[in-house]
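Quick illustration for those who missed Monday's session on complexes.
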Amino acid sequence: MQRRALMLATLAAPWLAGRASAQTITLRSADTHPDGYPTVEAVKIMGRFAEERTGGRLRVQVFHSRQLGEERETLEQTRFGVIDLNRVNMGPLNNLVPETVVPGLPFLFRDEAHMRRTMDGPIGEDILAGAERHGLVGLCAYDSGARSFYSRRGAVRTPEDMRGLRVRVQQSDLWVAIMRAVGANATPLPFGEVYSALQTGVVDAAENNWPSYHSSRHFEVARFYAESEHSMSPEILVASKRSFDRLPRDLQGVLRQAARDSVPEMRRLWDAQTAASRAAVAQGGAQVNAVDKEAFARAMAPVHQQFANTDRLRGLVARIRESV
Ligand code: GTR
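Prediction with beta-D-galactopyranuronic acid bound:
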């Protein structure tokens, strides 16, 4: 039988604060990143909003640093209501929730501002809503900047330089296809295994944004960072539908609004962290180079047709392209 996390958390809450009759509900939230990372801090901020707005009836406890497991496992547990909230990248959701593929498609957004406007508007709402059919309530999307390649073997400048490289990807068919498109061998691995895979040569390369390249210390073992910026697959905060449905109506509304209100806070932290991480990895010996982006975009283009393969998904892609 599944553990009733929400109920247990409620019973275990030592701080039955506020009015004597008010019960405190504590939602447990998972994150792969360490304490202090913008996603971790954003969910804490959301928790503070929720707590303030409910007079302490609703709280959020963030378990950072993979304390509850790797993203794919924690997502399963979230669907079953063992974990109440989960902040993951959209990548590990790709195989489950088709809509999450769309914003990760290579070179889709024109820039970060386009991605932000899209995810804040009706298209973003539509993508988040896709999770609901799969036991998850999409609360908000956070930034994940742009993902770029990094290698232990040498600078990558063109798609030809990727040929035959073993590249770690997120556990997602989209990501396997993206690597195939440039002639690389995709190796899907959980995030927590990437450092040692790079260190021991199980993989030659991986790809991620500046803050993750930095906080995971991958720059120590893969020093050549190629600014390909090939995908802007955003982060997503989901609630377990089981946990969400158990919340009183008013608390559901508070939770949704608190999540939305944490997005600008997250972005402030994200921009600062991106600049700090860029400087820190350069200091730590990373060598950064530019790539032939047009050649990468051309090579990866067939992935769009392959994965935006229903009217709904094609429609989302078209709306994103048309949006200003
Ligand atoms: C990071 C993201 C994590 C995780 C990781 C990965 O950018 O924030 O949630 O998905 O990438 O590559 O596994």
